[in-house]
Every structure is written in structure tokens, then in C-alpha cells.
Amino acid sequence: MVKAVIYFVLGVLAGGFAGKLIIERIETNHRHARSVMTLLSFHKERLDAAAKANRCEDFAAEHARLVALQPEIAQAFPQAYQQEAGFKKSADALGTALQTSGPADVAPGTCPTAAKRSQHVSDACDDCHKVYDPE
What we know:
Four Helix Bundle (Hemerythrin (Met), subunit A), 0% strand
């Protein structure tokens, strides 16, 4: 009887250890993707806030950060980017929106089209998240 209890406890411990390793592996696979999306979301929110507050310099800085981060989408989701035409189209549409929404009229004090250009970026994000949203 004691032997059976010991084997049972050892089995539970081994199962728990194996389960922990499996969960850590699954989480590691998605860490880069979550990080990229979190950063893009953070800087998009700051871009929107800068556009609403008419802070041209902040708008330009956040726009530059988004432009630099956008190529990470293909690296964070390589399989979806290569195999799903809709995902690739959405990721590339964000790149196009960022190119066409650049801070062309960055003058101290006023950015007359910043809100409109910020909306183009938000629309590109929203179009993708209508289809590819984990929640």
C-alpha cells in the first residue's frame, strides 16, 4: 500500500513537472508576437493622443516608432504572413497607411492633418483585428 502511494505521488510530481514544461514552451512561442502587438498598440495610442493634442513633435516621434516596428509583424507571425494572403495584405496595408500618414506638416504648434492621418493608421489596425483578433 505504501509503495502504491509513493508511486502515485511520484507520478503526480512527474506529471506536474511535464505540464509545467509544456506550458512554458507554449508561452515562449507566443512571447514575441504578444510583445510586438503590445508595442504597436502602445505607440498607436500615443500617436492618437499626440494628434488629438496637436503636438506635432510627439506625433512625428510616435509615427517614426510605428514605422520602425511595423516590419516586426512579419517576423512575429511568420507562418500567417507567408501562408495567409489576408494577413499579409493587412500587415502590408498598415505599412502603406504609415507611409501615407507621415508627418509631412510638422510645424511647431499645429498639425492640421495629424488627426486624419492618425485615423488612417487606426483604420488599418482595425481592419486586421476584425479578422485576426485573439480575443
